[in-house]
């Protein structure tokens, strides 16, 4: 069912032992603004995509292996309530549920799946995660130089190491960030200095990625922050559209099992 909802835009999801644990709509903090996204929680992966037709059609499918996920609860702040971070080595972002109860349910089910996976595999949870990008509307000026004002010509860019919104001159360096890409990625000057300084230390326990050659002219090459947030556009669902509460199937199964067990005991 989930595969058919994504159609040709998605990848095959059916695998031996894979179980759909729950599904529902969460508000994902995208680069430009918060947007509703459909999430499907399986026992080994988290899948989400853009809503084209509610409960019928989705696109821009993203698949996240749960072994790579770390959750961090967010404090309520203004209009942003009931949120938490979904962090991986390649991408991290914030999501928000409609109520505190839904937040607790989502986080508990995801954490349980992660715990079960790591216990079965014997693997350790990842120690490094990609930075959460600061939304565009939270930075009117460059967060590095504190001078450049963003306009149509002076575009916003994101440092892939710290997530700050920076101008072109303040993000003219590139560095290979393992876990995110094999290619050099845009980083701010401060992060570049820290990365190269760490690499130069002879007592480093593990070899770090080699710094990429400097590429000047940050405005060239089409390296826009939007390129790495492909689900930030193509938003066809109305932002004020009401969504049903999330559904977690194992809860229903446990309830049914409990009822059946109680019924047998009564008999």
Automatic annotation (TrEMBL):
Location of the region described as Disordered in the Swiss-Prot/TrEMBL record: 200-267
SMART domains xrefs: FYVE, PH
Record's keyword terms, sorted: Metal-binding, Zinc, Zinc-finger
Comp. bias regions, Acidic residues: 225-235
Pfam annotation, one family: FYVE
Domain FYVE-type: 136-196
GO molecular function terms listed in the Swiss-Prot or TrEMBL record: phosphatidylinositol binding; zinc ion binding
Basic and acidic residues composition bias: residue spans: 236-267
GO annotation terms (biological process): endosome organization; endosome to lysosome transport
PH domain location: 19-115
GO CC list: early endosome
Matching SUPFAM superfamilies: FYVE/PHD zinc finger, PH domain-like
Protein name in UniProt: Pleckstrin homology domain-containing family F member 2
Originating organism: Euphydryas editha
